[in-house]
Amino acid sequence: MTPERWQQIEKLFHDALEQKPGERSAFLAEACGGDQALRRQIESLLVHEADAEDFIELPAPAMVARELASREPGLLEGQAFMIGTKLAHYEITGHLGSGGMGDVYRATDGKLGRSVAIKIIPDGIANDAERVSQLKREARVLASLNHPNIAAIYGLEESGGRNFLVMELVAGETLAERIARGPMALEEVLEVARQIAEALEAAHEKGIVHRDLKPANLKLMPDGKFAGAGT
Hints:
Layout: H1 3-17, H2 24-32, H3 36-47, H4 60-71, H5 77-82, E1 86-87, E2 90-99, E3 102-109, E4 114-120, H6 129-143, E5 153-159, E6 162-168, E7 173-174, H7 175-181, H8 186-205, E8 218-220, E9 226-228
Antiparallel strand pairs: 1-2, 2-3, 3-4, 4-6, 5-6, 7-8, 8-9
Helix pairs in contact: 1-3, 3-4
């Protein structure tokens, strides 16, 4: 989150507090315009209006992150911190998952108006040369693949000293979520296995070995196809 965004949140939060409770919604609608992420952040702060005395000691973004993290089990404050922020022209709108290689977020491409997935190295190791090197290698690997069952990469970007991958946002539920819903029919299992095998074959032909293949990294799209979208 940029310092400018922090200042904007803090100012609007205090301005909203000066409004009568029944007038705050209309005030935020006008003040935030079409920035729904900003409005959600301010509304989250207003939930803690009774704790406003602590605001000087706890920066507005930290309060937003704490509120988001408390509402979403498993979401860390550092991950919640990212929601509503921007990396270059990409606005982060949600957290999709975390893995050994980084955190993956849903984002909106401000230039092309499309939804994308962004993979970021966590703050604690964002400057680790080996992790950055791994991220760049992953970008080159994905760029070398072109298969309907493998999520496409749109680019390797850098903003504010932070490197991140911009990838295709694969819609649908993960294989892990599908399994959790109940037993799968044999025909469905065979179709899933076939598509996974074909994607792996395409990768192996390029000399690439997937080292983190698991149900949580596979998504079933609305058209019935599976695609790798791992973390």
